[in-house]
Amino acid sequence: MPRGPLEGMTFSADPSASPDVPILSRLLGMLSLLRTDSCELCGETSFLQDELGGFCGPCVEDILSAPGPFLLESSPRVWAAREYSGEMVQAIRVLKNPGHRKAAPVLADLLLRPLYRKLQESWMTEDDLVVVPVPASPAGRRSRGFDQARLLGRALSSREALLVKRSRGRAQKVLSREERRENAGSHFSPSRRIPPEAVPRRVVLVDDVVTTGATIGRCGKILQELGVEEWGALLLAVRL
Compositionally biased, Basic and acidic residues: which spans (predicted)? Predict the structure, then answer.
C-alpha cells in the first residue's frame, strides 16, 4: 500500500522553537487585573480571555507546555507546533468557531511565530515570507464565514498568495488514510489568478491540522507546478 508523505517518519520535538513559558506566566500575572471572563477551554472564570483569544492564562500555559514542536519533514521543512491532543483539540475547535476570530492571531503568535522565524533563518531573510493558506472546504467556509488558515497566515505575514484552490468534496477529517490521499489529489488544484511571472520564488503553506500529510504533499506539488522554487509548511497541530 502506498504511504503518505509523512508516514513512517520519526517525529521529534524541538524545544528551541518554543516561547519562554515562565516569562509568559509572569506577564499574565501582571496583566491579570484587567478583566475577567469564562475560558473557552476549561470554562473557569479567569483573566484576559479576550486578549488571549478566549483562553485563560493557565490553559495557554498548558498548550505551550504540550509536546512539540515537531519537524515532520526536513526537505521541504514541514513543522507542526503541537500534538493534536488534550487542550490543542479544543483550541482548534475554538479557532473554527465564528464567534472567536481572535483565537487565530493568538494561536499564530504563540505557536507558529517561533517556527516562522526558524524558516526565515533557514532561508536567510528577515523579510516577511509569502504565506499560502491551505484552503478550507467550501462547506466549511460557508458554515463558518471564514477560512481559518487564512486568518492564521495573515497573523504571521502581510504577504499572501492564493496559489491553491479547492473544489467541493468530502472533508479530509472524515476520511481514512487512503481516502485522504485520493481526495487530496482530486480536490486541490493550482489557482490561475496569479500570472506565472508573479509567482513568488519562496512560500510557506499554513494550515491548522495535519494527519497523513496528503494535503500538504499535494499542495507542495501544486506549488512546484506553478514555479515555486522552495516551500515550507507550518501547522498548528499534528495527529500522531
Answer: 175-184
End-to-end CA distance of the chain: 20
Residues 60, 24: Cα–Cα separation, whole Å:
9
In Å, how far are 53, 60, 103, 106 from 100, measured between CA atoms?
Answer: 7, 15, 6, 11
Interval 133-186: pLDDT, tens = 999 988 888 889 999 999 999 999 999 999 999 987 666 566 666 666 666 667
Q: Report the distance separating Cα 21 and Cα 146, nearest Å.
A: 31
pTM: 0.81
Contacts of 160 (CB under 8 A, 6+ apart): 130, 131, 132, 133, 150, 153, 154
* Cell numbers for 112: 507558529
Which residue's entry shows cell 506539488?
Answer: 221
Backbone angles phi, psi at 229, to 5 degrees: -85, -30
Using the 8-state DSSP alphabet, how is residue 194 labeled? S
Cα–Cα distance measured from residue 70 to residue 217, given in angstroms and rounded to the nearest whole number: 17
Q: How far apart are CA 55 and CA 46, in angstroms?
A: 9
CB atoms within 10 A of CB 215: 29
Distances (CA, A) of 200 to 10, 119, 146, 186: 31, 16, 25, 24
CB 211 within 8 A of CB 172: yes
